[in-house]
């Protein structure tokens, strides 16, 4: 994965504020601007209707409908009608007039909530080139509902082809909005498709047809959904495979993947997301809900950065990794189970793109401050905070992060403006900086102790989400630091064995490209060497005097996760039954955690995050310490307490994991 | 024999036939009346027979270029006025001026007439390494009376085919391993003697027919330490008999295409086998490489035309005992021979199907708005199984190339007409000049059927937006086939190198394969530092029930490259990988030789390759036929 995951990524060039011009000139003339993008040179379909017809007429659909008809003993016409209905529900109906309308509205909204929307124009120039040469897949991360149309908005502004966007069905359910989105190029995918063969067929043929005819750029969220924690999610592979298939089958020469990183100073949904993680259910997506959320629009959300990464050539990536010959012996129109190589490759590409999104992210000073604040739950003085944040800025830059640190502004001002932007989370009183929720001013007398904990936890989780935006910068060296803490050995091999164990355990927490553990370890070590905290000689890792501060900090970065994982492991080994469903699991862990916090045995409020709790369970499932069985309609988890205990012991440094082959030594 | 009247009619059709061939091949020449005799191989008498119907002398270099394509008297050049002309008298294009070739050439390749890269002037015999002779073998060969030569220029001439790297090396004056002597057997029995002697003295034999190989098949393996003898079949060139009842002809395998066709025409027959190289390539070479002819839709490819083969191998002579039209006698042993590329023995005599010369022949052409529509039309034609004798689809680049080769028009009226045609197609019909492509057609048969057939094909074409574009365009398209090889030599005078290669591919992949391979060539050139975008173009040259044969040309300007040959080889290699990855075959008719050997196992599976190897091991355990092709 040389091209995807080494440090040779392009430095994002200068950013331009696209709102600046909007504030100076008429919104209407922007919305009515002449729009004539250079089309992809191979494109062959012209209308949404022609696209749908091509899908329904395809040999593939003919084959699948016939097959389903035979299986179900129904007339094929019936199946074809069903397919046609599915397609109708799914398909986009991109109309320029709606793009104009929506862009007009968005300009109004954006101008109100954001100070700036910053875009790297060099990235757009590269995109413009790519759009003409090959089918392009736009792959943004998804952190807020606000960014759903931001790419279309930017491309419209820069006179580039408007993409069609894969969206979840719930969005379609919103009255009016669903229809507007459809006309802005959204196409809708059901959430749980499961074994619905016909649906899969329609969807995959639809996507493939768009890609191979170069009908329009395809935009989709490889993470599958909006990240509740602002942390990158492990990618979903179904859609990824669909867009890559035309390349595998030689139907296009190449496909360009464009990772897009969207980062916020402050996310509109911050409090909503935190409460969701704590078990307060997410409101259903309705138009009324959206209207009610207008109050949210009264506030200041700082800047938004949209960084268009360098297009990645699928052909380049596939060199030596996939064998296109495998498609030679079966008609390409027939469904064919992808080979193992292909599946591995798709997973590699998807993970790699997420890593590139992380690399392109722009960190705000606030993200760094959040890292520090969370390590001092009791609060700290403004001076200390400033001093540590400045130190951390240096470390982050050494680790290759992109920072949006305002130039020619004093450090103090940076601190205070960040804190004022995030006054819903933090306050500064008499030179002391505190997270909110410690003691509620005018304390709500009726509040239960649980209520207090939840309030405090909500603030911590909001703060944590901004820290999460910066985690990818530190995670590899942090894992090395933790691995070094839980093994007494300084031999690289032993540290790597622990590193690999931790990476596996945290595989759902952080995104790593599968099969690249050696590379990740090397990266982590070399960053530590670069910042002067380590020396690497003869297969030994030697700490320097700087290790004390850096190592401590890096371990503390992962501390909340370590603690949460230990709590859950404790719960599973000591507290829970041997069998349970997911529905039972979350409340059980939550109340167990709550109990520990109230008893003062646990100081990590983050342990209350249902997201992390779920990740632990699924990581244990991956490591086969938990198994999943279907009994009746319920999926039940079965716990292997001994295996979990072992994992807990390794995590606590009591025993060693089985040594892993360290290939890179 | 037929009655007098009948034979004079036959003679007339023969004359007409000659004109037809000349139409797309060469200028008519004085028919030199030679007798066709089923004569015994009497070495002395026939060797001294001055009336031999042979266009190919033993010392080929006397009429052919030693470091380029074709006849010495025919070549392209830019005259003092900077206009391109074609010299000589042999071809329709000979002596004509092509006014737009220069602009096309400079525009397409970024070449410049000021920047010349001339070839080394003449063969310096001193550079050719001295022969490594097996003295006993030479002695015993002398005793048989079979002619041979150890001259440097004879040996040099047979050390190569016509791959770009081979010609490039010659022009630069680099010579690799050469055959150590050349021997010219006169008949089957001569070959038997030579092979026996070679086996006896462990000498390596390399059969040499027309020398038009483009697969490195004629390259002497550098690791070969034995004496290498090039076995030139050109003197085995007689039609031994014609069987008019069964419509077969028994022919010596050294005969070259144009002679075979001419001689049969004189008796009112033809084989209909017309590969692009037919001016020079030989019957034995066709068999050994599984050749394909332009008119295979009517006559079939070589494997369909062959009825009986005689081949001399180190184990003895292989042939079938009868000439039944089809047999169920286990796997067809002919198929061990067809495509064996000189690794098993020498094909000496072949019985071939022949057909009466068709009464009527008509060229045609169709312009399509784009390549996609053109391919769709060819597919439909194949589906309806109504392909004309030949149907070929050129892409846009080749269409423009064809235009650049238009000779100077004789009258203002013609140029006015051309202008009108162009106006009609681009302005009135809305065809995009940079998209449109043209199919060339050749119909054959009796007049009525041809006209009917023509209508059917044009009707199909119309459904795909095709417009009939006249006979002239069609004919020029076929003429191009024969001169394009000469053009490469012109390019090489000005820093432009190029090559052609081919594949066969299922119908549904034709478009994808063409696009991807062309694109791959362009990208690879760019990556390898080629300064100007290359010419990367293709045409569909044959249609089958399940697929088509696609032919690619690519060429680029190599100024500024330190190792152009290596760049070229890498690009060609990448293009072949791309072909295979897109479901194309390793070769449709050029063969494997040594150039494409590395992909054989992948192409036919290791068991398949093992089967071929075991045949080789049985037939030629000592690797006497040691050209190391194929396996």
From TrEMBL, chain A:
Pfam families: Acyltransferase, GPAT_C. The lineage of its organism: Eukaryota, Metazoa, Chordata, Craniata, Vertebrata. Residues 136-265 form the Phospholipid/glycerol acyltransferase domain. The keyword Glycoprotein does not apply. GO terms for cellular component: membrane. Keywords: Acyltransferase, Membrane, Transferase, Transmembrane, Transmembrane helix. The chain crosses the membrane at residues 148-173. One of its GO terms (molecular function) is acyltransferase activity. It comes from the Eukaryota. Its main location: membrane. This is Phospholipid/glycerol acyltransferase domain-containing protein. Belongs to the GPAT/DAPAT family.
UniProtKB/TrEMBL annotation, chain B:
FAD binds at residues 207-213, 289-292, 341-347. Residues 26-45 have a biased composition (Basic and acidic residues). Its main location: membrane. InterPro entries: Alkyl-DHAP_Synthase, FAD-bd_oxidored_4_C, FAD-bd_PCMH, FAD-bd_PCMH-like_sf, FAD-bd_PCMH_sub1, FAD-bd_PCMH_sub2, FAD-linked_Oxase-like_C, Oxid_FAD_bind_N. It is found in: Peroxisome membrane. The active site is at residue 551. The record marks 392 as: Important for enzyme activity. Its cofactor is FAD. Keywords: Acetylation, FAD, Flavoprotein, Lipid biosynthesis, Lipid metabolism, Membrane, Peroxisome, Phosphoprotein, Transferase, Transit peptide. Homodimer. Belongs to the FAD-binding oxidoreductase/transferase type 4 family. This is Alkylglycerone-phosphate synthase. It comes from Coilia grayii.
């Amino acid at each position: 994965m040389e091209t995807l995951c080494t440090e040779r990524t392009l430095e994002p060039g200068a950013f331009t504020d696209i709102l600046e011009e909007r504030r100076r000139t008429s919104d209407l003339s922007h919305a009515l601007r002449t729009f004539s993008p250079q089309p992809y040179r191979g494109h062959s379909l012209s209308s949404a209707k022609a696209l749908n017809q091509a899908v329904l007429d395809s040999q593939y659909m003919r084959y699948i409908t016939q097959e389903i008809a035979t299986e179900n003993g129904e007339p094929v016409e019936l199946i074809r009608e069903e397919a046609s209905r599915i397609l109708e529900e799914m398909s986009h109906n991109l109309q320029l007039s709606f793009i104009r309308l929506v862009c007009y509205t968005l300009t109004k909204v954006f101008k109100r909530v954001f100070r700036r929307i910053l875009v790297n124009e060099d990235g757009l120039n590269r995109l413009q080139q790519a759009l003409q040469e090959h089918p392009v897949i736009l792959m943004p991360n998804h952190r807020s509902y606000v960014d759903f149309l931001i790419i279309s908005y930017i491309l419209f502004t820069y006179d580039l082809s408007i993409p069609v966007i894969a969206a979840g069905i719930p969005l379609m359910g919103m009255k009016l909005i669903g229809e507007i989105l459809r006309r802005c190029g959204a196409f809708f995918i059901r959430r749980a498709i499961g074994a619905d063969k016909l649906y899969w067929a329609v969807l995959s043929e639809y996507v493939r047809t768009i890609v191979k005819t170069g009908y329009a750029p395809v935009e989709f969220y490889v993470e599958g959904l909006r990240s509740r924690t602002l942390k990158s999610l492990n990618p979903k592979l179904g859609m990824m495979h669909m867009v890559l298939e035309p390349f595998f089958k030689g139907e296009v020469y190449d496909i360009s993947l464009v990772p897009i990183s969207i980062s916020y100073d402050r996310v509109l949904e911050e409090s909503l997301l935190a409460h969701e993680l704590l078990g307060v259910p997410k409101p259903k997506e309705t138009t009324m809900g959206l209207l009610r959320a207008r109050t949210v629009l009264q506030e200041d959300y700082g800047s938004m950065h949209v960084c268009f990464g360098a297009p990645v050539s699928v052909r380049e990536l596939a060199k030596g990794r996939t064998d296109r010959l495998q498609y030679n012996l079966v008609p390409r129109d027939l469904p064919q189970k992808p080979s193992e190589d292909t599946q591995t490759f798709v997973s590699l590409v998807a993970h790699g793109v997420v890593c590139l999104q992380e690399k392109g992210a722009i960190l705000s000073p606030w993200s760094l401050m959040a890292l520090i604040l969370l390590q001092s739950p009791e609060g700290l003085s403004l001076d200390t905070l400033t001093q540590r944040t400045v130190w951390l800025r240096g470390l982050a830059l050494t680790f290759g992060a992109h920072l949006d640190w305002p130039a020619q502004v004093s450090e103090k001002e940076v601190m205070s403006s960040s804190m004022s932007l995030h006054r819903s989370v933090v306050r500064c009183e008499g030179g002391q900086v505190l997270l909110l929720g410690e003691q509620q001013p005018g304390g709500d007398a009726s509040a239960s102790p649980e209520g207090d904990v939840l309030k405090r936890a909500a603030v911590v989780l909001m703060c944590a989400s901004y820290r999460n935006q910066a985690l990818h910068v530190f995670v590899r060296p942090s894992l090395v630091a933790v691995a070094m803490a839980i093994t007494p050995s300084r031999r690289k091999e032993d540290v790597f064995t622990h590193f690999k164990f931790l990476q596996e355990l945290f595989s759902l927490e952080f995104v790593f490209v599968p099969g690249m553990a050696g590379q990740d370890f090397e990266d982590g070590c070399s960053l530590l060497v670069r910042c002067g905290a380590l020396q690497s000689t003869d297969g030994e890792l030697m700490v320097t005097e700087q290790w004390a501060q850096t190592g401590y900090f890096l371990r503390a970065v992962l501390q909340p996760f370590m603690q949460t994982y230990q709590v859950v492991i404790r719960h599973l080994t000591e507290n829970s039954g041997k069998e349970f469903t997911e529905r039972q699991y979350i409340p059980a862990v939550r109340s167990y955690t709550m109990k520990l916090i109230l008893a003062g045995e646990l100081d990590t409020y983050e342990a209350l995050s249902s997201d992390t709790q779920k990740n632990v369970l699924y990581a244990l499932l991956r490591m086969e310490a938990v198994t999943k069985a279907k009994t009746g309609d319920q999926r039940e988890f079965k716990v292997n307490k001994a295996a979990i205990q072992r994992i807990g012991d390794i995590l606590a440094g009591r025993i060693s994991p089985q040594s892993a082959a360290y290939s890179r030594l | 024999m037929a009655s007098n009247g009948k034979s004079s009619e036959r003679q007339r059709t023969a004359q007409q036939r000659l004109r037809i061939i000349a139409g797309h091949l060469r200028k008519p020449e004085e028919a030199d009346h030679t007798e066709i005799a089923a004569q015994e191989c009497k070495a002395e008498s026939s060797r001294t027979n001055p009336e031999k119907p042979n266009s190919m002398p033993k010392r080929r270099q006397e009429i052919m270029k030693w470091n380029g394509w074709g006849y010495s008297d025919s070549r392209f050049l830019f005259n003092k006025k900077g206009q391109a002309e074609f010299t000589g008298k042999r071809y329709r294009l000979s002596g004509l001026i092509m006014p737009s070739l220069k602009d096309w050439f400079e525009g397409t390749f970024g070449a410049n007439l000021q920047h010349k890269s001339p070839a080394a002037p003449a063969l310096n015999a001193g550079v050719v390494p001295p022969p490594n002779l097996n003295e006993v073998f030479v002695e015993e060969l002398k005793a048989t009376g079979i002619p041979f030569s150890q001259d440097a220029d004879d040996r040099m001439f047979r050390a190569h085919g016509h791959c770009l790297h081979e010609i490039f090396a010659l022009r630069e004056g680099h010579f690799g391993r050469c055959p150590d002597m050349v021997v010219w057997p006169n008949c089957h029995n001569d070959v038997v003697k030579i092979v026996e002697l070679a086996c006896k003295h462990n000498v390596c034999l390399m059969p040499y027919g027309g020398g038009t190989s483009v697969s490195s098949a004629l390259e002497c393996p550098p690791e070969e330490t034995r004496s290498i003898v090039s076995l030139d079949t050109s003197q085995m060139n007689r039609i031994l008999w014609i069987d008019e009842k069964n419509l077969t002809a028994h022919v010596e395998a050294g005969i070259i295409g144009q002679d075979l066709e001419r001689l049969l025409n004189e008796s009112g027959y033809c084989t209909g086998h017309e590969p692009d190289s037919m001016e020079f390539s030989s019957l034995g070479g066709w068999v050994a490489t599984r050749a394909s002819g332009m008119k295979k839709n009517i006559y079939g490819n070589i494997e369909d035309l062959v009825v009986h083969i005689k081949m001399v191998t180190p184990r003895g002579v292989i042939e079938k005992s009868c000439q039944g039209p089809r047999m169920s006698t286990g796997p067809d042993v002919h198929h061990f021979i067809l495509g064996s590329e000189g690794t098993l023995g020498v094909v000496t005599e072949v019985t071939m199907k022949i057909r009466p010369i068709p009464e009527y022949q008509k060229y045609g052409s169709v312009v399509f708005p784009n390549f996609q529509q053109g391919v769709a039309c060819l597919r439909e034609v194949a589906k309806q199984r109504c392909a004309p004798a030949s149907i070929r689809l050129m892409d846009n680049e080749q269409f423009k190339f064809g235009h650049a080769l238009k000779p100077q028009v004789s009258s203002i009226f013609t140029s006015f007409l051309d202008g009108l045609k162009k106006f009609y197609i681009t302005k009135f019909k809305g065809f995009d000049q940079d998209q449109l492509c043209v199919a060339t057609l050749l119909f054959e048969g009796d007049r009525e059927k041809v006209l009917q057939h023509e209508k059917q094909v044009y009707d199909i074409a119309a459904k795909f937006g095709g417009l009939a574009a006249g006979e002239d365009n069609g004919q020029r398209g076929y003429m191009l086939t024969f001169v394009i090889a000469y053009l490469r030599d012109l390019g090489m005078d000005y820093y432009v190198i190029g090559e052609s290669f081919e594949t066969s591919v299922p119908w549904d992949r034709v478009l994808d394969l063409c696009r991807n391979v062309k694109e791959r060539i362009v990208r690879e050139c760019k990556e390898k530092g080629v300064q100007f975008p290359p010419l990367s173009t293709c045409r569909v040259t044959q249609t089958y029930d399940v697929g088509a044969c696609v032919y690619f040309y690519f060429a680029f300007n190599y100024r500024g490259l330190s190792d152009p040959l290596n760049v070229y080889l890498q690009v060609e290699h990448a293009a072949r990988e791309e072909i295979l990855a897109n479901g194309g075959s390793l070769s449709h008719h050029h063969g494997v030789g040594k150039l494409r050997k590395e992909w054989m196992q992948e192409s036919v599976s290791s068991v398949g390759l093992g089967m071929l190897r075991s045949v080789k091991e049985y037939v030629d355990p000592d690797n006497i036929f040691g050209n190391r092709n194929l396996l």
